[in-house]
Amino acid sequence: MFQKILIANRGEIALRIQRACRELGIGTVAVHSTADAEAMHVRLADESVCIGPPAAKDSYLNIPAILSAASITGADAIHPGYGFLSENARFAEMVEAHGLTFIGPSSAHIRMMGDKIAAKTAMGGLGVPLVPGSDGAVPDLATARTVAARIGYPVLIKAAAGGGGRGMKVARAPDELDEAFGTARAESRAAFGNDAVYMEKYLDRPRHVEFQVMADQHGAVVHFGERDCSLQRRHQKLVEEAGSPALDAAGRERMGETVTAALAQLGYRNAGTLEFLYQDGQFAFIEMNTRLQVEHPVTEMVCGIDLVREQIRIAEGEALGYGQSDVRFSGHAIECRITAEHPETFVPSPGRVTAFHAPGGLGVRVDSALYAGYQVPPYYDSLVAKLIVHAPDRPAAIARLARALEEFAVLGIETTLPLHRRIVEAPEFQAGDYTIHWLERFVAGGEP
Mind spelling out the 3-state secondary structure of 334-349? Predict the structure, then answer.
């Protein structure tokens, strides 16, 4: 059993990991920038270490400072949370090289899945369905024209090292390809230091459906069902559901068997999420996240399993101790990501929180590091709270979510709470009839 875990993150996810550690009787070390000296994750940790100035590159991405903090506090392991260094293969290697346990997958699997081309090649070879596209990177415009002619327009050009929608462009016709290809490469080079891109058939009305998996070090792999993350703006998720309104039990079982079999062959360990586009009853793999997801609470609510606890157990070398037939799904869960942004313009809104009231009641969970008087810094991601509800079925979950959103109050800064209240009232959302393109049009005020 680990005695002390350093949490290489901040905000609500650092608190989430702290809570799991406390229930397991494990001590925690918080790291923080000077901007986060009064943050809740620092206040509630057993120990804390300042690792640098506000800029993430000088603090939460400062590998030597984080490893030094682990050394001076005597930590046994490091949990990276999500974002920051969570999918940095070099960081995972350095953690292990310093005699610590990295609570996550192997560095080899992090590196493989961090390259979108390598990930697609690996998954396709393991029997996971793919979006029609290029065979690896597309080196030049002439090749791009050949690939586009083969798979048919519209096409999507994507950064091989990408994420969050950066380095991603659509060409709907041949006369749009030249500009889209050049822009995607330029954005990829600027964002990731790598201009490699690949191409896929652009699906016009897909849903974004992902499967949560967990694998131990002894070859056992289970899945915890699917999440529907189709409600996105600029490729950033705003609302997630478990399970998907578009998927039935048979579809869940079929794809669940596919993903667990693939990861068993791969020898994967710890938590992971395989993301798919889903259209006309067909799945197509797009990427795998080798970490805990922001939206993991909806899975926890329908399965009753603490995913962070499972991550820690597996990292300690324990077996899962249960099989797929032991995983039970109950009811429906929905999560809203509340960000410190204007609900219409999405301009960031850092500042002091003058009042904070979280909703409560049966089946309501709020994961947040906010408190009255807290100064939301301008240096990091704008996520400030996650509201999660669970109920016996989807209509009941929507009713509970609407009620909880009305109770939720954050004063002093702008948040996206008003937008979430609008989304919940929309007939398309209530019917579960939406794709990954719906929210962009809804926010713009156009026809969904």
Answer: EEEEEECECCCCCCEC
Amino acid letter, 353? V
Mean pLDDT of 173-181: 95
Q: Active site residue: 207, 227, 269, 291, which one?
A: 291
| 446: confidence class by pLDDT, cuts 50, 70, 90 | low
Q: Model-level pTM?
A: 0.92
Cα 73 to Cα 48: distance, rounded to the nearest angstrom: 9
Instruction: Clarify whether 207 is annotated catalytic.
Output: no
**Residue written as tokens 């390809």?**
177
Residue 110 has pLDDT above 90, yes or no: yes
Domains of the chain plus CATH, in order, are 4-87 (3.40.50.20), 132-201 (3.30.1490.20), 207-444 (3.30.470.20)
pLDDT tens by residue, 299-312: 999 999 999 999 99
Residue 13: name the closest of 431, 311, 322 by CA: 311
pLDDT at 166: 81
Distance, in Å, from the CA atom of 62 to the CA atom of 50, rounded to the nearest integer, reads 11
CB 312 within 8 A of CB 384: no
What is the DSSP track for 226-276?
A: EEEEEEEETTEEEEEEES-TT--HHHHHHHHHHHHHHHHHHT--EEEEEEE
Gap between the terminal Cα atoms of the chain: 51
One DSSP character per residue, 165-184 reads TEEEEEE-SHHHHHHHHHHH
| CA 160 to the chain's CA centroid | 18
